[in-house]
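Quarterly update, task 2.4: zinc ion-bound model.
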Amino acid sequence: MEGRRMRLDNARLADGRHVDVMVEGGRIAAIAPHAGGGGGMDLGGRLLLPALVDGHVHLDKTLMGMPWRPNSGAATVRERIENERRYRRGLAHPVPRRAAALLRRMIANGTTALRTHVDIDDDIGLENFHAVRAVAERFRGEVDIQIVAFPQSGILGRPGVAELLDAALAEGADLVGGLDPASYDGDAKAHLDVVFALAGRHGRGIDIHLHDRDAGGNAQLRDIAARAGAAGMAGLVTVSHAFSLGTPDAADFAATADALAAAGVAILTSSPSAGPVPPVQALRARGVAIYAGSDNIRDLWSPFGNGCMLERALLISLRQGFRADDDIALAYGICSDAGARMLGLPGRAVAVGAPADLLAVAAETLAEAVAERPAGRLVFRAGRLLARDGAYLGNN
Ligand SMILES: [Zn+2]
């Protein structure tokens, strides 16, 4: 299927040109001025964009596909963890059914690559990991899925969890996660010792949830950067959320951002937090890689989210105070090309040689696409039409 040739006629590019796009071997083979000869799939002047990438999503947690469940409104990370441990086993649908429902929705919205954090703890062991891995296998060819072995309930206070993470990595988990080394696990050094040792032993990347704010959070970021630098892990370590980078302390911010940039540690933002969030422009100006994800989508943590990274680009733009078209285009970029690169995939663009993972929407410009989030979308995976107008057309 990936070897076939096809043509997308009458596409609008972000710079306003109307073109025909030739696809071969899953990649864009040529882009020519629109000739009007027909013969390909007519995009009717839709704006053609690189498809979206969700850098952080919890496929095993989602309640997508189930009736609406009222949220109990737990106030802290610790309360949300306990709430989830209490209720997840009683959920009506098993993980594969809920995860597949979300994946179909994400693909229909334009996402063709993602990184998912899967809970591993002393209660469920590797159950969710195995379930998500099986779902990922089913969707192979439609969406690239990286799996993080994620200790949602911590490591140090949960006997056996380090060994479970080790087992998941041995079974093929792509990365090892971590969780609030200081505030949740109570010993940042010991927590990070375990995480970096596991990554080193298996030759895998790291993606750590860090919710801690202010100087304490930034101290952990600099510790993570120092460890990543010493281990030669540039490009292989992400810190998700990193709310502490939203600090008003300019000197603390600069020192922390410079440490992250020097070590090649990336930041993942899901952005619409009520508190401080990492400032996208300021981080990029200091050389820090930043990309975006949904995080929780309609689960026991959050009632919000719909698997639409175009909407995420809008939320990020609003949260970051973006108004200029170039800034909104940047928000789209961290929801697409930047995420692909951090996932170790080819960069995304509508350009010759780039993967034909594409999204066509009824808009004139990228900024309009983000502002409007048009419902009528065509989603292509390696040149194959995988969704049309919100309907998933894949095999799952
Ligand atoms: Zn998360």
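Highlight for this quarter: The longest strand covers residues 111-119.
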